[in-house]
């Protein structure tokens, strides 16, 4: 938690500081505080926390995939508080309409009898939107988020309505209950910078969770970042240097995952389609964010390897023959990572 009287000049000058190294060091310290604060209520999911923070620091969106009860909703609520963001939650259901997300115009009449349309903002007008069980809504409703996620605005009645800044979507998806769901189209999946898979906590983490959440006191969190600091951090991240070897590793990984450019015949036969340029852009940003979270000022090839699965797994599809032979995307990505050396 940041005390109200604490001085933090280096962090306040992100992007304009004469000493970018000092600003980056200040950001690394603050990110450590963010991780510790989140860890007081989220147990046994440090990799998940880091991947979601990576997506947000990179200025992108994340798709959280996991069974019920793993803390996806609590994680999003906690992030909103700790990062100092306004947050809203939308429960996606089959009867949800696009206007329920973006908002709509209503006809109003004033005291003089004059009528005019007024736009009522929907829940998408927030800084951190939780799209809960996004695959339960119809494709028409899912598409309402496409423009918002890419352009940070929505078009209503021919007028563009800008969204708050920063704007991030954290969507959840339940992989177990597939009845009554609509798979996300490839165009929307590609707009998620990372797909974050949640697994069950280990024994020690689950024990700590039980002791912390079933007593009379409920754990809570406090804001760590102040208004505007997240955007400043995102601007600083884009200014961090990245080595040619890391750029080459990103291109090797992404181009090797496409059936058109893969240099392995078995890979070409196994893939129906592969990642586009957004995957390479995501890796360029996410490797920088991961380095900062780890206390480093420059990313390495190890960062590329660690982020290969969350960046690629929702941007690739197996061919029919590969599925029939029992090939998995995870195994294919592992093979691509091994080629990085």
From TrEMBL:
Phylogenetic classification of the source organism: Bacteria, Pseudomonadati, Pseudomonadota, Alphaproteobacteria, Acetobacterales
A Pfam cross-reference name: AAA_3
Species of origin: Endosaccharibacter trunci
Protein name per its UniProtKB record: MoxR family ATPase
Domain AAA+ ATPase: residue ranges: 58-202
InterPro entries recorded: AAA+_ATPase, ATPase_AAA-3, CbbQ/NirQ/NorQ/GpvN, ChlI/MoxR_AAA_lid, P-loop_NTPase
SMART domains cross-referenced by the UniProt entry: AAA
Signal sequence extent: none
């Amino acid at each position: 938690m940041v005390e109200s009287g604490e001085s933090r000049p280096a962090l306040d000058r992100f992007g304009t500081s004469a000493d970018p190294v000092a600003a980056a060091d200040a950001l690394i310290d603050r990110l450590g505080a963010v991780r510790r604060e989140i860890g007081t209520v989220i147990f046994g999911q440090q990799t998940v926390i880091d991947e979601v923070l990576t997506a947000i620091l990179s200025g992108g969106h994340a798709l959280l995939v996991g069974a019920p009860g793993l803390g996806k909703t609590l994680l999003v609520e906690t992030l909103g508080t700790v990062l100092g963001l306004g947050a809203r939650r939308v429960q996606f259901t089959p009867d949800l309409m696009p206007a329920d997300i973006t908002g709509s115009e209503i006809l109003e009449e004033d005291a003089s009898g004059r009528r005019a349309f007024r736009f009522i903002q929907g829940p998408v007008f927030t800084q951190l939107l939780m799209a809960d069980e996004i695959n339960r809504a119809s494709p028409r409703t899912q598409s309402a988020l496409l423009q918002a996620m890419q352009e940070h605005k929505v078009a209503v009645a021919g007028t563009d309505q800008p969204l708050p800044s920063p704007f991030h979507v954290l969507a959840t998806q339940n992989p177990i209950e597939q009845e009554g769901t609509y798979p996300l189209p490839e165009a929307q999946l590609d707009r998620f910078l990372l797909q974050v898979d949640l697994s069950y906590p280990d024994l020690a983490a689950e024990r700590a969770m039980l002791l912390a959440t079933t007593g009379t006191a409920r754990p809570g969190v406090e804001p760590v970042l102040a208004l505007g600091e997240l955007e400043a951090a995102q601007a600083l991240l884009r200014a961090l240097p990245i080595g040619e070897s890391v750029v080459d590793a990103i291109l090797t990984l992404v181009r090797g995952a496409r059936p058109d450019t893969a240099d392995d015949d078995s890979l070409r036969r196994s893939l129906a389609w592969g990642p586009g340029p957004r995957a390479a852009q995501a890796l360029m940003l996410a490797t920088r964010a991961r380095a900062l979270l780890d206390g480093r000022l420059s990313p390495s090839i190890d960062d590329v390897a660690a982020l290969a699965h969350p960046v690629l797994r929702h941007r690739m599809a197996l061919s029919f023959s590969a599925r029939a032979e029992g090939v998995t995307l995870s195994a294919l990505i592992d093979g691509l990572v091994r080629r990085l050396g």
